[in-house]
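Intended use. Records like the one below are meant for learning the mapping from a protein sequence to its folded structure. Do not use them to infer anything beyond what is encoded.
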Amino acid sequence: MAYYLGEKAPRTRWWILIAAVIIIIIISGGYLAWRLLREDVSTQQAVEPAELPRMANFPPKEAAPEPVPPPYSSDAPLLEQAREAMRKAIDPEGAVALAKSLPDKPERADAAFILLEYAAEAGHAEAALMVARYFDPTDTEDSGTIIKDFAAAYEWYQAALSGGQPQAQNHLSNLRQWVKKEAAQGSAEARELLKNWQ
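Structure written out for the chain above:
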């Protein structure tokens, strides 16, 4: 029996030794791999995603145009006058009078618009006519930084007409011709406005 144990003991030691070496190799390899991955992640820089290929039946997207900054500073004196008048709760008639009296400076159109829009929203028909002209793409007067919007122009012309400003009808006729051209060129918004035109 002692002989049998003596012969078995060296084999068992070899298997234990081999298993220990394999475990040490696996643990060491895992640790090294973990360290390498951790260093790769920490040193990796942000990569821009690759642009997806364009579908053949869609035109390439055009970049949106940068908004044009006004040609004057945001704290322009005329704009401040208009804001101050609004803070002091100027009446609509006074707002229209102040808008008409503003001196001819680069920021005049925007300052006047603030006052006129306030008066128009209060029901002042003459102010509504003037606000409509700011939005009207057929009108050639200076509209400052106000973006042309034919649907808004139509609404304000209608308000002016309802308030007793007959000259709004001439502007509406010009606007209608312009909207018809836009609709003919494929503008869904123009077609919708023509459908509901009164």
